[in-house]
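User: Please predict the structure of the protein below. I'd like the answer in structure-token form so I can feed it into my own downstream comparison script.

Assistant: Understood. Taking the following sequence of 232 residues as input:
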Amino acid sequence: MSPRRTLLSPRVLVLTLLFVVIVPCLPLLISQRWAWLEAWAYAGVSIAGFAISRVLAARRHPDILAERARFMQHANAKAWDRWLVPLLALAGALILVVAGLDARLEWTPPFSPFTKTVALAALVAGYALGSFALIENRFFSGMVRIQSDRNHHVVSSGPYRWIRHPGYAGALLTYLATPFLLDSAWAVIPAVLTCTVLLIRTHLEDATLRTELQGYGDYAHGVRFRILPGVW
């Protein structure tokens, strides 16, 4: 199947509508609070971040969207990632479900305007860092696999000069910021769960790259930290 047909397939279009448009709007749909500015801000940042990053990445690496669109279909994807990717998606959506229910049922009091402002800044920073990683890395696939069919090699430019998994670092920022932006202390619980799954995936992916991708061991020796400089 050609890259264009892959991107326009019914499966890809349905998944894009679900995860890019509907899921970010879950707090609004569940709460029915249409004047909830923080929820609109979350949805706007999420949808715009996805669209802008994909347009810029495709301009630099025309084949990257087709690679990501075929996630869960690659024969050489790691078996453990076939479980972790859906789990990560469900856990991330659960943050928004809980936040929507919290707003509708008024389980917890709102956070201060300062806290929500910081959370919004962290959300934007997380998307910016993740987008930077996607645009810089032609091999930023939706599944963990060694892309020998695409001449897979180590990428050490852009944010990869500072940490080995900047895309995951950006995702962690967005997951942790979301409950505070959406005024939901209860949503911190699924956010921590989501971050735990993401850290497990980071560890397994890093170990895979060390073992199977030529040159990654030397790169990891020079760039010591996976996600947070000075910590891990």
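That's the full token string. The CA atoms of residues 115 and 180 lie 7 Å apart.
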